[in-house]
Write a structure and sequence with these properties.
Elements (H helix, E strand, L loop, with lengths): L15 H30 L4 H29 L2 H18 L5 H29 L5 H13 L1 H14 L4 H19 L26 H27 L6 H25 L1 H20 L4 H29 L5 H39 L1 H17 L4
Helix pairs in contact: 1-2, 1-4, 1-5, 1-6, 1-7, 1-8, 2-4, 2-8, 2-12, 3-4, 3-7, 4-12, 5-9, 5-11, 6-9, 8-11, 8-12, 8-13, 9-10, 9-11, 10-11, 10-12, 10-13
C-alpha cells in the first residue's frame, strides 16, 4: 500500500503477489488455449463435424457461465484464495481425464464439468487482480493482467495444433495438465490479498450474486467476445476449407499485437478514458472480422490477426477497468462474475451459433456477420460519450 501522502500515480503495482498472480494466470491460460483451439480437431478425430465442434466449445463456456454468479457471491462472502486453488485443481484433474474419452458423449460431459472448474478459477483470479491493482492504475494493471492471458496465444495454439496434427492426442492433454499443475503451484504461493471487510454482510444474501454496475461494460464485452468464440470454433476448419496451411500462426500474430495493445492501451485508457479507447478497439475488430471473411491467402488472413489483436487488446482492459471502477470494494467478486459471464455467453453464442450459421451461409459469411457485434458496440459507446460529453 502507498503511503498516505504518496503520489497515487506511483502506487505500487508490481508487488510479489501481483507477479505470482500473473505467472499463475499465464501458465493456466497456456493449458486453456492449448486445448481450446485444438479441441475442434479432436472432436473431428472422434467422429464429429463442424457443428459438433462448435457445440463442444460452447458447452464448455456455458457451464463456466452458469457457475460464475455463485462463484462471485462465494468470493465476496467467504474469500478468494481457497476458491481459486479449488478451481485450478479441478481443471487439472479433468484435463487428465479427457485424454481417455472414447466417445463424443464422454468428451462432452468431461468438457462441461471442466467448464465449472474453469469458471471458478478465472472468476477468482480476476477478482484477486482487482483487489491487488491500485485504483489509480486500473487500466494499466488490468492491461498487464490481460497480457498474461494473451501471451499464451502466441505459443499454445500453434503448439496444440501441431500436437493434434500428429494424431496422438495424449501428448496434448499431458502437456495441458503440466501447465495447470505449475499454475496451481504458483497460486499456492500467493499470500494475499486481504479479504474485504464487508465480507460477512453478504453471506446470507443470494441476491448479491448479481452486481448491476457491471452490466453495461459486460454487455459491451459480450458484443466483442462473441466474434472471438466464432474464431476459436471455426478458424482451424476455415483454414482447411480455404486451403490455407498453418492457420495456427494466426493466433501467434494475434497474440503478439494483443500483448502490445493491452500494455499500451491500458495506460492510455487511464489517461483519456475507458470509453474512448474501447471505441477505437471496436472499430479495428469489426474491420478484422470482415477481412477474415474475404481472406483467400495467408497475408490477408494474418493482416486480420494484427487488426483483431490490436482491437481486442485495446477494448478488453478498458472494459474490465470500467467494471472495477464502478463496483463497491465488497462487490468486486460479483462484478467480476458478471463480466466473465459475458465472456462465456459470448463465446457460447459465437461458437455454437456461428457453427450453425456457417452451415447456412458458409464460414466466410458467418465471420462477416459476426462484425455486427463490434458495430453495435461502437454505437452504444458513441451514444454514451455524447450523453456524458466526453466524461469517463
Amino acid at each position: 500500500m502507498p503511503l498516505p501522502n504518496a503520489d497515487p500515480r506511483r502506487a505500487a503495482l508490481w508487488t510479489r503477489d501481483f507477479i505470482l498472480l500473473l505467472g499463475s494466470n499465464l501458465v493456466f491460460y497456456m493449458s486453456f488455449q492449448l486445448l481450446l483451439v485444438s479441441m475442434p480437431l479432436y472432436v473431428v478425430h472422434l467422429g464429429g463435424d463442424a457443428a459438433t465442434a462448435g457445440l463442444v466449445t460452447g458447452l464448455f463456456t456455458l457451464t463456466a457461465m452458469v457457475v460464475r454468479p455463485l462463484t462471485g457471491w462465494a468470493l465476496d462472502a467467504y474469500g478468494r484464495r481457497n476458491l481459486w486453488l479449488l478451481g485450478i485443481f479441478s481443471c487439472l484433474v479433468l484435463i487428465l481425464a479427457q485424454q481417455w474419452a472414447a466417445t463424443l458423449v464422454v468428451l462432452i460431459v468431461l468438457r462441461m464439468v471442466n467448464g465449472f472448474g474453469f469458471g471458478v478459477a478465472t472468476t477468482a483470479g480476476g477478482t484477486i487482480a482487482a483487489d491487488l491493482v491500485p485504483k489509480s492504475r486500473l487500466g494499466e494493471g488490468m492491461g498487464f493482467f490481460g497480457v498474461a492471458m494473451g501471451i499464451p496465444l502466441a505459443v499454445a495454439p500453434p503448439l496444440g495444433l501441431w500436437l493434434a496434427g500428429r494424431g496422438d492426442y495424449s501428448d496434448l492433454f499431458w502437456l495441458g495438465a503440466l501447465f495447470t499443475a505449475v499454475s496451481l503451484a504458483l497460486a499456492a504461493m500467493l499470500r494475499g490479498p486481504a479479504e474485504p471487510r464487508e465480507v460477512s454482510a453478504v453471506r446470507s444474501r443470494l441476491d448479491s450474486m448479481f452486481e448491476r454496475t457491471a452490466v453495461y461494460p459486460s454487455v459491451l464485452m459480450f458484443l466483442l467476445i462473441s466474434s472471438f468464440g466464432l474464431i476459436l470454433a471455426l478458424l482451424a476448419l476455415y483454414g482447411k476449407e480455404r486451403g490455407l496451411g498453418g492457420v495456427g500462426i494466426w493466433f501467434t500474430v494475434y497474440a503478439v499485437f494483443l500483448t502490445l495493445a493491452r500494455s499500451a492501451g491500458g495506460r492510455l485508457s487511464d489517461r483519456i478514458g475507458y470509453r474512448q479507447t474501447a471505441v477505437a478497439g471496436f472499430v479495428l475488430a469489426a474491420v478484422a472480422l470482415v477481412t477474415i471473411a474475404v481472406s483467400n491467402d495467408m497475408p490477408m488472413l494474418l493482416a486480420s490477426a494484427v487488426l483483431y489483436g490490436i482491437g481486442y487488446g485495446t477494448t478488453q482492459p478498458s472494459l474490465q477497468a470500467m467494471v472495477v471502477s464502478r463496483a463497491p470494494v465488497a462487490r468486486l467478486g460479483a462484478a467480476t462474475a458478471v463480466l466473465f459471464v459475458s465472456y462465456d455467453l459470448g463465446t457460447t453464442i459465437g461458437s455454437v451459433g456461428g457453427g450453425l450459421l456457417a452451415g447456412v451461409i458458409g464460414m466466410g459469411g458467418a465471420f462477416a456477420f459476426s462484425a455486427l457485434g463490434p458495430v453495435i458496440g461502437i454505437g452504444l459507446l458513441l451514444g454514451d460519450l455524447q450523453r456524458r460529453k466526453g466524461g469517463r
